[in-house]
Amino acid sequence: MDLHTPRLHLRELSLADLKAVHHLHSLPEVDEFNTLGIPESIKTTEHLLTDWLVQQQATPRTSYIFYTQRVNSEEFVGLIALNLGKANFKNGEVWYKFLPTHWGQGLTTEALTELLNFGFDHLHLHRIEAGCAVENVASIRVLEKAGMTREGRKRQILPIRGNWVDNYFFAILETDRSAVH
């Protein structure tokens, strides 16, 4: 399954993407608000990637994880995913990680908007959520530009580099669609 935007091609993640995923997760800038931490080795990343692939192949499917690249050059820019909740709730949660060299260009917002459209139009979800560390100003802006609403704050929920960090919760409903179109 592939998704497309004017500048991006989102294709499902595969084991062949291991080196790119490891590089992304090994960057301190990307890890700043990440609860996983920097992987100790490529083997650690391989275990993570394998877990993600199992989620993508589950029946019923529990996750859509996309390797995101530029349309013209096929240059890797990052990862974006939609994890599904229980079917009767018709909800999901998005997350993303992009290479710092592609920050500030609107690419994350573009990819997120396409993923939200996919969730509502093809998976018929009612609600899509996201979490974001309160100090991650750039990610907060991405979520807002994609039409998501900040609904609340949980105190000291994220274990990041030995500290407990607060997290904002965002969501968009299928009835909020005018915000993403």
Automatic annotation (TrEMBL):
GO molecular function: acyltransferase activity, transferring groups other than amino-acyl groups
Transmembrane segments: none
Keyword Transcription regulation among UniProt keywords: no
Keywords: Acyltransferase, Transferase
Domain of life: Bacteria
Keyword Transferase: yes
PROSITE patterns listed in its UniProt record: GNAT (PS51186)
Residue ranges of every copy of the N-acetyltransferase domain listed in the record: 8-171
Any matching Pfam family: Acetyltransf_3
UniProt-listed PANTHER family: [RIBOSOMAL PROTEIN US5]-ALANINE N-ACETYLTRANSFERASE, GNAT FAMILY, PUTATIVE (AFU_ORTHOLOGUE AFUA_3G00765)-RELATED-RELATED
Family: Belongs to the acetyltransferase family. RimJ subfamily.
Protein name, per record: Protein N-acetyltransferase, RimJ/RimL family
